[in-house]
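ingest -> validate -> predict -> emit
validate: passed (alphabet ok, no gaps, 240 aa)
predict: started
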Amino acid sequence: MDDRFEAFGTSHYLMLALFVVGIPLVVWQGRRVRGTPAEERSRRVFFASIVVTALPLQVLQLLPGDWDFDTSLPLQLCDLATIAAAYGLWTRRPWACALTYYWGLTLTTQALITPGLVQPFPHPRFIGYWAMHLLVVWAAIYLTAGLRVRPSWRLYGSTVGLTALWVLTVMTFNVAFDTNYGFLNGKPGTGSVLDLLGPWPWYVLTEIAVVAVVWAMITLPWTAGKRRATRSGPAHAPAR
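emit:
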């Protein structure tokens, strides 16, 4: 067994394959239970799976043997996406489902493609890392494509606003405590895609602009479909 996790090695490809296989399954499950008494039970089981996975992983990072003030606090957007996913699954609140959709599909997926992971399979951290990130992205797909909790332009705007607030808050925290959560106050020591976006702070502003555009693009299909349904609905309504 390898001593370190290898990006785009066998275990990485297997996890990505598992992710792809899981997509149609969560869509099917969501559509199967949508609007039935079984929906709430299904959401609660999904909620429990995220909590049971994410909570021990966070506790592990707070233990003395693993504690690092620069990395262990739950200040990354992936951490917040996990909380939003759990709350959205429990309550079906549109704003929490929207945060899960936007943060999960575009930011948590980056953690699947470029994992910040050292431990190989079957280390508990490997299992916890993949379980948590896969479940969050699956939850985003389950809530939208499965249960049809649709994003909207209003929810898009609130997500952009909350994300901007996170950027300002975490940047301030980084300055106050000499940390670099979210790589908001400096680029990683190794090469990354951020190197293509210019020096600090311009790469942060470019990131925000790019993410806002991508989120607009993944909002459009839902809002356009809703407008078409609204226009065609009355014309095709059955006679009473």
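The CA atoms of residues 81 and 103 lie 6 Å apart.
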